Predict the 3D structure of the following.
Amino acid sequence: MRHMWRLIKILLILLVLAGLALIAYAYVGPIIFPADFAAPSQQITAPVTLEVD
């Protein structure tokens, strides 16, 4: 039973570390990897028909 608790504790620690890494990537990522966070820029032109009553 003692080994099972140790395994659960290690998994919880890894889960917390993974969450912290994800948060750090969200904040620091745009500075280090700006291309990954940039919105796709493409001009779209579409005709619009307005009905006038």
